[in-house]
Amino acid sequence: MHEMGIAMQVVEIALASIPEDMSGNAVERVNLRVGKLSAVVPDSLGFCYEVVIRGTPLAGSTLNIEEVPVTADCNDCGHQWIADRPEFHCTKCGSGAVQIVSGQELEIVSIDIAD
User: N vs C: which end of the chain shows fewer Cβ within 10 Å?
Assistant: First the structure.
């Protein structure tokens, strides 16, 4: 399960991102954007996060995951759509010349720290 490794990296990055003057404040939430094509199972990542934060300054925080849909652009006709299946052909003209615009994200958006 690669979600454990991802959870460990999220925690490491989040801990390193806490400003020194706020190091004693509780972290309330870590906000992520996870694309549907990132091969990450949000529920598994959430479970792994709960395991990894035990005994760290992030203990008690929650992991908020925003799932990003797969959006594609047609290079031939310029049409943009949300792809709801793994077949990437333009829904307007049928062209296979498509570019994935979103859906591969795996990023920490923000960290909410108590005042």
Answer: C
Other Cβ atoms less than 10 A from the Cβ of 35: the count is 20
Return the higher-pLDDT residue of 1 and 18. 18
Q: Has residue 1 got a pLDDT over 80?
A: no
Whether the pLDDT of residue 52 is over 70: the answer is yes
What residues form DSSP beta bridges with 108? Answer: 32
Q: What does pTM read for this prediction?
A: 0.85
Q: β-strands 27-35, 62-68: how paired?
A: parallel
Sorted by sequence, the CB contacts under 8 Å of residue 16 that are 6+ apart come out as none
Q: What are 32's two structure tokens?
A: 């992520």
The identity of residue 45, as a single letter, is L
- To the nearest 10°, report the CA torsion of 44, 47, 53, 59: 140
What order do you get walking across the sheet with 27-35 strand by strand? Answer: 62-68, 27-35, 106-113
